[in-house]
Amino acid sequence: MSNFGLFGFGPDGWGAVLLAGAAVSICAAVCGLILASLIGAAAARAKLLGGPIARTIAQAYTTVLRGVPDLLVIFLLYFGSSSVLSSVGGFFGYQGFLALPGFIAGVLAIGIVAGALMTEVFRGAFLAVKPGEIEAAKACGMSTFLRFRRIVAPLTLRHALPSIGNVWLGLLKGSSLLSATGVAELMRQTQIAAGSTRLPFDFYLAAALIYVALAVSSGLLIQAAERRYSRGIVRR
User: Fold this and answer.
1) What residue intervals traverse the membrane (predicted)?
2) Which of 55-59, 71-75, 90-94 is least confident?
């Protein structure tokens, strides 16, 4: 079979396997982005509006997590959870091995790490909103929730979108680390295919092209979102 045929979707091709791995990578990155956004919003609020204790906790979280490698966090969560769960199981008489599934541990890890980045993204985006725009909403008699929904959130998101795009691309690349816990994402499937066919260059090049295609597609979506949230803004 030719090298080109190895990437087909026939019985001897690896195309479907690579695309399935890419789908797992995308799913992990999406779940990680959702978790990172929730954590980032909460930590950014703590930094901006919280008391001294909340600000200290948020600052410690962002400082520590931005300085620790993603892979190390994955291992800590994966093996740490196994120790905790096995101890809890032993307390109730269960003698087997317990651990979080590799996918869940990996998503939690990359989401928690990305949450530290999203904290600064949201904090900086909120500070970029002009105070006069918020004061005008107050002057119109908007409630706190309505003011947040119609003024604060859209303006903050407009300023945050470019950086959110960077965090998303980081999560997409970081999803490759889930292979360390046995998750069959794109890099794991590529490693299997390369080992089975003894054509590592061909399959790693194919994986690189898939990642580039995902990055380009993501960039186009982010640009479309930026245009939507920048309607009415004069570009200079």
Assistant:
1) 14-39, 71-92, 98-118, 151-171, 203-222
2) 90-94
